[in-house]
Amino acid sequence: MSMKVAFFSFGACEGCRYRMVNELSKILSIDGIEIVRELLLGLTSEDEYDIAVVEGALTSLDVEKFKEIRSKAKYVVALGSCAYLGGITTLGYKYGFQAEEYLEKGYKESIPLQQVARVDSYVRGCPASIDELAQVLKEIATLGVLPKYERRFEFEKVSDLVLKDDFLKLDTGKCIVCGRCVEICSRINVHALTQAFRGFRVTVSTPAQLSFLEAGCVRCGLCAAFCPVGAVTYRSDMEAALKAIHSGASVVAEVIALEATAKALGVKVGQVVSLLKQLGASSVKVVDPAGLVANKVGVVPFSMAEERWIKTIYPQASEYLLQRPILNSQNALLITACAARKEDHTPTLTAHELEMLARGSGFVLEDLPEVSVDFQPASRSNLRIAKGPSESAEAIRRFLESPTYTLVVQLCPGGCERGSGIPFKLLNE
After folding, report:
1. Is the peptide bond before 347 cis (omega within 30 degrees of 0)?
2. How many CB atoms lie within 10 A of CB 85?
3. Of 70, 166, 224, 357, whose CB neighbour count within 10 A is largest?
4. Distance between CA 197 and CA 3 in Å, rounded?
């Protein structure tokens, strides 16, 4: 059974649709696709279609029509820059020769499609690439997935140096030598990153270009969190996470990760949980890692990063080390404020990655229902929590003088509330 496709146009020059007609064979060659509406082809069906491909931004007079299209279509694809971003052609009624005429007819603002209703996929560009549109329609019709395609420059600079392992990647071709990663690494007294070479070749590297672990890296992920240009990145689990959640996997989420994501998106925590369920999660369990810490005498590293840090810098405290909190031992998706937890579980999404996933989901986040969050804060009365390298160093020294309680070590400056997995915009506040 074929999927019926209808093309619509609002505030745009119609260049995307004319290009589609000129390259129509690319669309007609897709198995399982039937075009039922495209006025340029003389097809005028308004009643029955599965996929609505919409060109152009929405003026104030188009909003209700688009809502009607959204209600009829199983999938909506935004075609071209105007539909996805509100292109410059929509400004003509404000600044063009016909401004007064447009205003008299009742036109006011013009906005992208997703500000009115959910958009399932998009094809960027001015005009949009018909090859990419054909790929989107093919994947929706044959696989039932919602791809998003965008153009890249064909040329990429070859980097002078790339260091990578299964957790971190340093691409010096993107580095602007701002020194933020070197500074944050020195603040936690690790010094796994430094500046190398001279003159115009100066860049950031590990000492003698050693691997990260050989250079003493504890894999906290802070260098990636504070890099302003993405020259240092930690492992992305976005693809694996989307696959798991679309298949109905359960989700285990740290409460501080959900709170940080909600703050970065400007919505409520319950709406973030609602988004996860809309994407396919079978359940969402909210946890406080402190509640998993055993009530024993000893030092609790909050992740593998703290464990390495203590063993390397304070080996005298190693005999008191307790098990770090393992939040997810089942086949579920973990959402965390700590990028270092990626060592314990796959797939793991940081709050930063969850924010990016939410912004690209196609949902109007403010319109999602706010579901109740079943969460009981853990009692921390029997714990002493040290936040940041300086406080942790002093706390370990005091613990060794009187080892009679539970000490929790959080290496990130400011603690896990400012962890390496927190959305970048919050870390830069």
Report:
1. yes
2. 18
3. 224
4. 58
- Burial class from Cβ neighbours inside 10 Å (0-12, 13-18, 19+) for residue 208 reads exposed
**Domains located in the chain, CATH noted:** 3-143 (3.40.50.700), 162-234 (3.30.70.20), 238-427 (no CATH)
Among 227, 217, 236, which Cα is nearest to 339's?
236
pLDDT tens digit sequence for 165-223: 999 999 998 899 999 999 999 999 999 999 988 777 788 999 989 999 999 999 999 99
The pairing of strands 406-410 and 383-387 is: parallel
CA distance 87 to 83: 7
Model pLDDT for residues 391-409, shown as the tens digit of each residue:
999 999 999 999 999 999 9
The region of weakest confidence among 140-144, 146-150, 408-412 is 146-150
**Three-state SS letters, the chain:** CCEEEEEEECECCCHHHHHHHHCHHHHHCCCCEEEEEEHHHCEECCCCCCEEEEECEEECCCHHHHHHHHHHCCEEEEECHHHHHCCHHHHHHHHCCCHHHHHHCCCCCEECHHHCCCCCEEECECCECHHHHHHHHHHHHHHCCCCCECCCCCCCCCCCCEEECCCEEEECCCCCCCCHHHHHHHHCCCCCCEEECCHHHCEEECHHHCCCCCCCCCCCCHHHHHCCCCCEEECCCHHHHHHHHHCCCCEEEEHHHHHHHHHHHCCCHHHHHHHHHHHCCCCEEEECHHHHCCCCCEEEECCHHHHHHHHHHCHHHHHHECCCCCCCCCCCEEEECCHHHHHCCCCEEEHHHHHHHHHCCCCCHHHCCCCCCCCCCCCCCCEEEEECHHHHHHHHHHHHHCCCCEEEEECCCCCHHHCCCCCHHHHCC
Residue 44: pLDDT band by 50, 70, 90 thresholds? confident
Q: Phi and psi of 98, rounded to 5°?
A: -105, 25
Q: Nearest to residue 419, comparing CAs of 169, 269, 226, 156?
A: 226
Q: Dig out the tokens for 12 from the structure.
A: 């745009």
Which pLDDT does position 322 carry in this prediction?
93
Please identify which residue in the block is written with the tokens 């020259």. 231
